[in-house]
Amino acid sequence: MPERTVDLHAHTTASDGSLRPAELVRRAAEAGLAALAVTDHDTIDGLAEARHEAGRRGIELVNGVELSVRWNAGTFHLLGYLFRPDEAMEEGLKRLKALRHERNEKMIAKLNALGHPITMDEVRRESGGGQIGRPHMAKALVKKGVLATVDEAFNTLLRRGRPAYVIVERLEPAEAIAIVRRSGGVAVLAHPYQLRLEPADLDARVAEWAAAGLGGIEVQHSSHDAARQSELGALARRHGLAATGGSDFHGDVKPGVELGKAHGGATIPYSRLEELKRRLDR
Ligand code: AMP
Ligand code: ZN
Ligand code: FE
Ligand code: FE
Predict the structure, then answer these.
(1) Residues near ligand 1 with C-beta < 6 Å?
(2) Rounded Cα gap, residues 204 and 165, in angstroms
(3) I need a labelling partner for 81 at 20 to 30 A (CA). Which of 37, 90, 174, 257 fits?
(4) Distance of alpha carbon 4 from its chain centroid, rounded?
């Protein structure tokens, strides 16, 4: 029998992926995956549709989310798995959505003050119903003819340091871990290289976060070559953490990343999900 494989990191139109949750699950089933975790940025709005479709197709759907965490140098994303999608989880996410909404309003006000009369409705229309952010502001600006391309919109107005930029307030690492754990889930550090830490600093931070309840590290990922993967595997072992894996599939918006495949087209064994499930007993 061929090895059972999984993908523990994929996005839908509920955040910035290009496929609807049901379509993503259909693709995962067609690819022969035994399990799929839907891990949208700061929302679990895609889970219900994904779960329904997973039931029809006989594939295991793992509740997931990818929380944005405050971090100055690079990007800190915290994956949450196997949690109950309960009121406590919704509360935590609602706060994140409110912070994002406030920030979007401030940016649109700045754009208006700069003489670009775009509205929240116009921006929302570019979002396809999912989470709203700067890419949709950029598209709205292009549609209005304010700037020629999305790139130009970022470079002249929307990038950090440009006149319409406003930062989104985020969770502290320990807060994000607590949100996942409070609802019975396992918290996993996503693509750790994006933190842009030296190895010794990464090790020290992982020790801190493990003490705060971190349960795993994303070891396999479409951006982790063999050397990175083995370093991260060692990091997980040193701290007694689960080693997970996922593609970080976004559909057409991130070409070159295939559902169910980590770096170099490697598959992700079901045992990685089992490691996560073992953490639930702690
Ligand atoms: P937001 O979460 O609203 O701040 O938007 C972040 C998203 O904007 C990222 O996920 C990228 O997809 C996109 N983005 C960020 N910087 C740029 C850039 N310089 N050019 C094009 N897209 C960008
Ligand atoms: Zn994304
Ligand atoms: Fe991420
Ligand atoms: Fe992701």
Answers:
(1) 133-135, 150-151, 154, 159, 168
(2) 32
(3) 257
(4) 24
Q: Where are the alpha helices (DSSP H) in the chain?
A: 21-30, 47-57, 87-113, 120-125, 134-143, 150-153, 173-182, 199-211, 226-238, 271-279
Could you read off the pLDDT of 115-158 as tens digits, one per residue?
Answer: 998 999 999 999 877 789 999 999 999 999 999 999 999 999 99
Measured from the Cα of 168, ligand 1's closest atom is 4
CA–CA–CA angle 189, 195, 200 (5° rounding): 90
* Residue with CA at minimum distance from ligand 1 atom 14: 135
71-97 pLDDT, tens digit per residue, is: 988 899 999 999 999 999 999 999 999
What is the 2 CA–ligand 2 centroid distance (Å)?
Answer: 30
Residues that place a CB less than 5 A from ion ligand 2: 11, 16
* Radius of gyration in angstroms for the set of CA atoms belonging to the chain, rounded to a whole number: 19
* CA 191 to ligand 3 center in whole angstroms: 7
Residue 87 Cα to ligand 4 middle (Å):
24
Whole-number pLDDT of residue 1: 63
Q: Which residue has the tokens 């080693």?
A: 243
Amino acid at 186: V
How much distance in Å is there from the Cα of 115 to the middle of ligand 2? 30
